[in-house]
Design brief:
With 193 residues, this protein is of the alpha/beta class. It contains 9 helices and 5 strands, in the order H-H-H-E-H-E-H-E-H-E-H-H-E-H. It binds cobalamin (B12). The site of cobalamin has 36 residues, from helix 2, helix 3, helix 4, strand 3 and strand 4.
Amino acid sequence: MVANKIIMDLYDGNNAFELIKEVITPALERIGSKWADGDIALSQEYMASRISEDIVDSILPPESSTRRDVPVIGLTTLGDEHMLGKRILSAFLKASGFKILDYGDMKAELVARNIKNDGVDVIIVSVLMLNLVSEVRELRSVFDREGIDTKILVGGAPFLFDHDLWKEVGADSMASDAMESFEQINSLMGIVQ
Ligand code: B12
């Protein structure tokens, strides 16, 4: 497979996140624009993302053997079917020693029920679709109604374009990439590194 060979030629065993950022994500962004311009079908975009997922899976680092059980981190999308960003984030945080509960894609009510049961300290929400940003506001209002004090950390394209958006939707913090999410989790939990 051509895509696989291109990445493997560049992969040195230690640069997975760099390759994802510099090569795979920009390629998918170009593919997304081609779809938006009507040059390719959604099925082709889908196949490109499946191929990318397989490549990403093959280069992501394994979980760290030094695991910490506190804080408990949940990860979800709120109606968004774009899963690759979440998967990358999860791998990075697992490699950093965090235990991650991945809820897949859920409605706010269900996320709230799960994090209550699981005692989640920080819920990370990945959003790619602009119209789903309002779901974070919904999550905040469910938390307020139910008295849930789990911190909400958001990230993804809409929050990169508008740096104050996370405040407007009632999140506790935002991060622009996996490394920053690590720092934000520690800061939200008052953990000094
Ligand atoms: C692949 C893809 C799909 C695949 C997804 C497959 C899958 N299982 O993931 C399929 C084909 C299913 C799909 C469907 C749709 N898609 Co689509 N898709 C894409 C595409 C091409 C790439 C997305 C991707 O995987 N990028 C690579 C990953 C690694 O990047 P990422 O998600 O941005 O994540 C990175 C960062 O943002 C960050 N990050 C992400 N989340 C978080 C969270 C935190 C806390 C932190 C710190 C960081 C972080 O970390 C990641 C690594 O750096 C984009 C194009 C684009 N420009 O993004 C369109 C795109 C996102 N899709 C789009 C659209 C419109 C759709 C559909 C509505 C199409 C349709 N008519 O059905 C549906 C939506 C379904 C839904 N409810 O979600 C639009 C969105 C427009 C908008 N304004 O919101 C885009 C931008 C295409 C375009 N140019 O118009 N899509």
